[in-house]
Amino acid sequence: MINIAICDDEPQELERAQIFLGKYIQEHPQYEITIVSFSAPLELLSYVEEHGSFDVFLLDVYMAGMLGTDAARELRQLDDSGEIIFLTTSRDHAIDAFEVDAAKYLIKPYTENTIFSALDKVLGRLKVERRHIITLKTSEGMVRLFTRDVVFTQTGRNNYQIVHTIQGERLEVRMTASELFEHLTPAKYFVKCGASINLNLKYIRQIRKDTIVLDSGEHLAYPYRVYKELKEQFLCFQMSTGE
Description:
This protein has helices at residues 11-27, 41-51, 68-77, 94-99, 112-130, 177-184, 227-241; strands spanning 2-7, 33-38, 56-60, 83-88, 104-107, 133-138, 141-146, 150-155, 161-165, 170-173, 190-193, 197-200, 204-207, 211-214, 219-221.
């Protein structure tokens, strides 16, 4: 099941997006898709806080009460990793879209081919990511995780690895950092950060010379000697996701 949210405060634009999505669903029966529509960003954010997230968000930028880019920042602060496609009349917020790791930034009036291409990209990526499920023996028992839900891992007490997830969990796993990295590497967004940290590039907000700032606002200390290499890996990752 793939859950898609549309948020636009202009009824005609909201209906237009719904029509395009309806046609996309008809032409792509391999995907089981549900759609929920919102006419205000605050309505969308309240829904996510109460009911959980969506896999894909189609967001207008200029909406009454809050910009779509600001709503996207709120989603990221909720540790939401959903794919974001902006649908807007202006190119002025393209940099803001980059900062929230948006998959696409489409200018209205967008065509059917344009939005279908954007959906092909994000749904294809979701399909690949959902194949990346790992099973770990933790101190609490066996756990199955999507690798996309792992923010980072680090070596803890007695050489246990601590797995930090977007849900705020901290899972203890008895294996080496290198062994855990081998489980994670089928997902191409993981990198080794020194000898004791495995890092998901998707959740990096900023790289400083002594700490990494994550989307959650958390600061993660790491070895300075890998600063240059980490910056290069992060830049390559950003360029590849922006294609």
